[in-house]
Amino acid sequence: AQSVTQLGSHVSVSEGALVLLRCNYSSSVPPYLFWYVQYPNQGLQLLLKYTTGATLVKGINGFEAEFKKSETSFHLTKPSAHMSDAAEYFCAVRETSYDKVIFGPGTSLSVIP
Amino acid sequence: GAGVSQSPRYKVAKRGQDVALRCDPISGHVSLFWYQQALGQGPEFLTYFQNEAQLDKSGLPSDRFFAERPEGSVSTLKIQRTQQEDSAVYLCASSSLGGGAQETQYFGPGTRLLVL
Question: Among A107, A101, A104, A66, which Cα is nearest to A85's?
Fold first, then answer.
């Protein structure tokens, strides 16, 4: 069965510092991978996704993630954190022949001025 | 519409009460998904519709949960005889075609259900 783990339920970074949110998955088939962001009292918004092709994926708001099959990882990064990046971030994996999305438990990102 | 809308945004129910949660997907979207998000957790899949057909309901936690989409647009998630463990945010998402992995799912703001 597919699963997603996110190391660190809470991450704090200083404004302007590198953001690194970790995601590892387990899958018996090549996965589709996603990062979603959730602001307070709002729905999830897609940041980026990996389906096929280039393993380095660029998303909105300056975020990017790299699919590393050998490490079964899909870590999310941003070179310089902004205050507006403070939110909950969810990594998700999807079966290739199915529509069910499996979400990780989430990482809460705080940005310190 | 401009996005996925859900109503009510907040619902307080007494234990044992029935509730109905509504989802209005983006106009024309074929696929519709329901998720349950417990406090401090990631969303968990409940059920999936393609048009009016409910193709997967494997995530519904019990037979107290029922979902429908009779005309292939608006969907309702009904919970009968609510229990405290049903307290969660219920998220609805839609996608334009068959819901395949290449498609983006667009999420609504959710309905926060509190069962007392």
Answer: A107
User: According to the model, what pLDDT value does residue A49 have?
Assistant: 92
Cross-chain Cβ contact A99/B109 below 8 Å:
no
Q: At A110, phi and psi to the nearest 5?
A: -110, 140
Closest to B90 (Cα-Cα) out of B32, B16, B17, B29: B32
**A94/B42 Cβ within 8 A:** no
Alpha-carbon torsion angle B27, A51, A99, B20, nearest 10: -50
With cut-offs at 50, 70 and 90, classify the pLDDT of residue B101.
low
* DSSP tag of B6: E
Look at residue A45 and tell me whether its pLDDT is greater than 80. Answer: yes
Q: Which two tokens stand for residue B32?
A: 């519709």
